[in-house]
Amino acid sequence: MAVTPVIVAIDGPSGTGKSSTSKAVAARLGLGYLDTGAQYRAMTWWMLANGVDVADAAAVAAACAKPSIVSGTDPLAPTITVDGTDVAGPIRGREVTSAVSAVSAVPEVRARITELQRSLASETAAAAGGIVVEGRDIGTTVLPAADVKIFLTASPEARAARRSAELSGADAAGLAATREALLKRDAADSGRTASPLAKAADATEVDTTELTLEQVIECVVTLVEAARRPVR
Ligand SMILES: Nc1ncnc2c1ncn2[C@@H]1O[C@H](COP(=O)(O)OP(=O)(O)OP(=O)(O)O)[C@@H](O)[C@H]1O
Ligand SMILES: Nc1ccn([C@@H]2O[C@H](COP(=O)(O)O)[C@@H](O)[C@H]2O)c(=O)n1
Question: Which atom of ligand 2 is nearest to the CA of 192?
Fold first, then answer.
């Protein structure tokens, strides 16, 4: 049975499992995948690489039209380039992670990246039969007409433990520091004026604290399959 393209928005705070879940759901259902956080990180990487003071919102706004940010939407091999350079590794570094909330709070940055996201989402959805887009404001602002909206949550302790597990040898002090850094970024992302991190009124909230990643993936796949409509 032919089905219409499905648009899936997955939002939530840091470390709730958005990327892992979105990639797996997209791969399982044969859909495209867009990591919008990677786009804000790529913009931040470019600002830092070009000596723009990320605390100066006017300077960030004046420069944000310059970089060419290109995202690949294959969930099995997502890519991100800036002016043709592969930045998938550098955008995960500590310097970018510390600066990204300041850059993403600038309205001109959001306007530019939101436009990129909308056009990529519609092109990819048409070509691949749908797309899973993950971020902070997808269900509220970027794609408010998405067919499925999910808001993932988890306790700060669970999120910090998951992040620390990625770093071998993380101790109790490291865990506490990771927890504080996650909460600081969430507070900045939720507190900004322009398109803050928020649950859309019509999103389904999934608390992943006590769930395995596989259980979260199953839950989202079930919601997406229920929303897919046959072509008339
Ligand atoms: N339900 C789960 N149970 C255990 N570990 C999980 C679960 N979901 C995700 N993880 C692990 O938690 C870590 C963070 O997950 P992920 O990167 O998907 O989160 P995120 O919400 O995309 O984070 P960020 O917003 O910071 O990019 C990863 O190591 C992932 O494997
Ligand atoms: N839709 C989005 C997605 C992300 N951000 C900002 O980017 C930061 C990094 O996101 P990760 O998912 O890679 O951790 C995030 O902290 C936000 O500042 C955003 O504003 N909107």
Answer: 20
Q: Is 97 flagged in the annotation as binding?
A: no
Structural domain of residue 207, as residue ranges? 11-225
Say if ligand 1 is within 6 A of residue 16 CB.
yes
Which atom of ligand 2 is nearest the CA belonging to 188? 18
231 in a structural domain: no
Residue 142: which of 108, 116, 107, 118 has the closest Cα? 118
**14 assigned binding-site residue:** yes
The band of 12, judged by pLDDT with boundaries at 50, 70 and 90, is: very high
CATH number, domain at 151?
3.40.50.300
Q: Residue 213 domain-assigned?
A: yes
**Is there a binding annotation on residue 195?**
no
Binned at pLDDT 50, 70 and 90, residue 28 comes out as very high
Q: How many domains does the chain have?
A: 1
Distance separating alpha carbons of residues 47 and 43, to the nearest angstrom: 6
SS3 8: strand
